[in-house]
Specification:
This protein is an alpha/beta fold and about 100 residues long. It contains 4 helices and 3 strands; from the N terminus they run H-E-H-E-H-E-H. A 3-stranded parallel β-sheet has the order 1-2-3, covered by helices on one side. Helix 2 links the parallel strand 1 and strand 2. The radius of gyration is 13 Å and the shape is globular. It starts with a helix and ends with a helix.
Length: about 100
């Protein structure tokens, strides 16, 4: 399981991109488990989904450092959105 690997690793990611609609565990369930792991509580998470809905809004308000990225069919728009999020996170870490 990914959470186990994250927990056991000496390295921690700068940011986690998470598809909200996963097969066995949705984004809310994953966030709950992720935020229970001491070293991973403050890692920013970007929820990735086709629609923003109430569940995503709930996750964004319930958990710290959670953003939303809408799935895009256009690769260039997706790339620019990802780039914007990553650059914003990098500049935030410098401060």
């Amino acid at each position: 399981m990914v959470l186990k690997k994250l927990q056991d690793s000496k390295l921690s990611p700068d940011i986690i991109f998470l598809d909200y609609n996963m097969l066995y565990l949705n984004g809310m369930g994953f966030l709950k488990l992720l935020r229970d792991i001491k070293g991973l509580k403050r890692i920013p998470v970007v929820l990735y989904s086709r629609s923003s809905g109430l569940r995503i809004e709930e996750a964004m308000t319930k958990f710290r450092k959670v953003q939303f990225l809408k799935k895009r069919a256009n690769f260039r728009k997706l790339f620019k959105s990802l780039q914007k999020i990553i650059l914003a996170e990098k500049s935030e870490k410098k401060v």
